[in-house]
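Q: Focus on the chain.
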Amino acid sequence: MTLLHDLVLVTSYDIDRLGLSTILDSSMKYKVHTMRPNRITSSCLEALGQRSIGLIDADLQDADPIDIAGILTNHKPGIPLLFFARSESPHLFLRGIASGILGIVQKSDEPQELLRKLDCASERMNLWNKEEVRRFQACFACASPRSAMEVPLTHRESDVLSKLSCGLTNKRIAEDLGISYETVKEHVQHILRKIGVNDRTQAAVWAVRNRLF
């Protein structure tokens, strides 16, 4: 049976590539092409068929998934795009919706659900449901009691807040910044206290509202 679709997976993690390839190779519908975020070339994208789909890891290392979406659509206009995510990141997902991302493939999705979402994306169907969008938007309804001008964040706290705002876990932040997990936890607590919010999501919202990143 002829493969009908090329699936471009942009990820920093070999385990995700292997897992996805194992599932999709047996489906005989999608051929997986893996690209690292810093190695996307126009020649590779131009070689893909017309019925291509882009799947962008929401947990990229040292790259903004929205920037990657822009690179893919620049080289392959009209390509339908999805996030590939392990957990929710309201800030990123709302940016994705605004950028034309069609939905999310969860890394925990069963093979049948994965194929359903890819099939929908291939037809350029919007996979975001109203409940999801309302939940993401609700995160931006929290109060921001202090402005950025009032908050004396240290350089390292700003680095941590930037990573946190992209949806990274404390473990990932520690790896990216070359500091310990416990140090990241301490920085996060200092940030929450300084800006006057209760959790990480509210901190990300505060950063966006204050246009820090």
Q: What stands out?
A: The mean pLDDT is 84. The longest strand covers residues 5-10.
